């Protein structure tokens, strides 16, 4: 097994649909500029309420990727 060294960053994804969609949006966007994404951890979930309804979901993620 190879030893791996990871860099960890925090990103925030948002969605009007769901927490799950906010995670997918964040990972998809991060993968456009970062290589070798390996794992994520949900650090925090938040939302925005407009009137009496949930309007927006926001998820903070730690993302790990291997470095060259």
Helix proportion range: 10-25%
Low-confidence stretches: none
Order of helices and strands: EHEE
Radius of gyration from CA coordinates: 14 Å
Number of strands: 3
Number of DSSP helices?
Answer: 1
Compose a concise summary of this entry.
The protein is α+β, with helices and mostly antiparallel strands. It has one helix at residues 19-30, and strands spanning 6-15, 37-50, 53-66. A hairpin with a 2-residue loop joins strand 2 (37-50) and strand 3.
Topology overview:
Blueprint: E1 6-15, H1 19-30, E2 37-50, E3 53-66
Antiparallel strand pairs: 1-3, 2-3
Give a description of the structure.
The chain is α+β, with helices and mostly antiparallel strands and 68 residues long. The protein has one helix and three strands, in the order βαββ. A three-stranded antiparallel beta sheet has the order 1-3-2. The two termini are 17 Å apart.
Keyword list:
3 strands, alpha+beta, 68 residues, 18% helix
